[in-house]
Design brief:
Layout (H helix, E strand, L loop, with lengths): L2 H8 L11 H5 L3 H11 L1 H17 L4 H15 L1 E2 L2 H5 L8 H7 L1 E2 L1 H15 L6 E8 L4 E8 L8 E3 L7 E2 L6 E7 L4 E3 L16 H11 L3
Length: 217
């Protein structure tokens, strides 16, 4: 599936992209856009082009502006759809391309797409965590993206349920369980960050997602 697009997109997990305005441009070469149109249709192409514009503009913006724009973009472009309904699997982590092309995803897909977008804009990996939480209001597992300016900062939460970016102190409905990014896996403490678990690079589904994208699947 769009091998070149997907491989380039995953460079954001391992390479610092801060200040590289050209990065967003190389994701959207004409042949890639043509393939998106022929495979998913005009509406999907329009969503991908809006994503391109978002990434391009985000190269020169502050982190706070990036957070709010990325959060709003995916919350508005994507509708929630469970994995069994969407993919016919109990738990499937989609690439951002799959999520945008189909305009649907579950909480993991929202969080992953936001993570990849912010990395592509130049937000350092060390400031981002994909966080497993328990949504206390419904007593169900959930996934969000959090941003921390420093290790001592109160995390900002990017969520697909509560649409506004809010500090974790204003999200008592979420109980952190653990968080991870491309650099490691963390146990969560009360404020959203804990000690790194040595020898791990993320959840099994996260690693599988990375492997799939690297292979162009």
């Amino acid at each position: 599936m769009l091998l070149k697009y997907v491989v380039v997109a995953l460079l954001s997990f391992s390479v610092s992209l801060s200040g590289q305005t050209s990065y967003a441009l190389q994701l959207f070469e004409p042949q890639i856009l043509d393939t998106i149109r022929s495979t998913y249709g005009e509406a999907a192409l329009a969503r991908v082009e809006r994503w391109r514009d978002l990434l391009e503009k985000g190269q020169s913006e502050s982190d706070l502006v990036r957070l709010n724009k990325v959060n709003s973009f995916f919350n508005n472009q994507i509708r929630f759809k469970s994995d069994p309904e969407h993919w016919g699997q109990a738990d499937y982590w989609a690439t951002p391309l799959e999520t945008l092309a189909t305009a649907a995803g579950d909480c993991e897909d929202f969080a992953i797409a936001k993570y990849v977008s912010l990395r592509a804009m130049g937000v350092p990996d060390a400031k981002l965590r994909i966080m497993y939480v328990r949504a206390l209001s419904v007593n169900e597992p959930h996934m969000v993206l959090i941003y921390m300016e420093t290790d001592q900062s109160v995390p900002l939460v990017l969520d697909n349920i509560v649409k506004k970016v809010l500090p974790a102190t204003r999200r008592p409905d979420l109980k952190p369980v653990y968080g991870f990014n491309a650099e490691g896996l963390w146990l969560a403490k009360a404020h959203g960050l804990g000690r790194k678990i040595e020898g791990k690079t993320g959840g099994s589904n996260w690693q599988e997602l990375l492997n799939r994208i690297e292979k162009g699947m």
